[in-house]
Amino acid sequence: MTYTPQKLMTFEEFLRHYGNESDYELADGELINMEPTGPHETVSGKLATQIGIALIKEQKPWFIPRTCLIRPFAEIATARRPDIIVLDETVLVLEPLWEKEPVITSGQSIKLVVEVVSTNWETDYARKVEEYALLGIPEYWIVDYRGLGGVAFIGKPKQPTFTVCQLVDEEYQQQQYRLGEQIYSPLFPNLQLCLLDILPR
């Protein structure tokens, strides 16, 4: 049996064929099927609701788009589709693709990115940490509601973990929270949140 490598895709091809397909990302030209489950979407939905309430209370010019792609690098065929993203509406006029496509290319437009961990946890804990930091996104949350991440990332025993990554001097400082602990976000200091609030019933 011979292995035939998948034909690499350009960012433009991905946008044309999969831009509206919420189950797909692009990484270095390779199509990635994210295959979200019902419980994954439950956690994403509950957390987006909590963030939305905080946005209304704080009356910031920020919002959560229904769908959005992040293009972290102009020269690399990568397109990330975060589970939740908070955008600053006041700077979207500077985004070159926004008027025609929901694509963000500048970290200045993004206040927060949230990834709910699934079986491809390595990407959320390693690759996306680097990409989002390089893009200058001030805060990144990794919601590992099933404790899937490697021991190097969430420790022993493996358990549900919520990681708040805050950008300090171009690198993320990470703070982890477990079940029953109050989560603190520098971006949303008044947000009352713990992991139990967003777990599937």
TrEMBL record:
Residues 11-193 form the Putative restriction endonuclease domain. It comes from the Bacteria. SUPFAM superfamilies: Restriction endonuclease-like (SSF52980). Pfam families: Uma2. CDD domains: DUF820-like (cd06260). PANTHER family: SLL0198 PROTEIN-RELATED, SLL0888 PROTEIN. This is Putative restriction endonuclease domain-containing protein. It comes from Aphanothece hegewaldii CCALA 016.
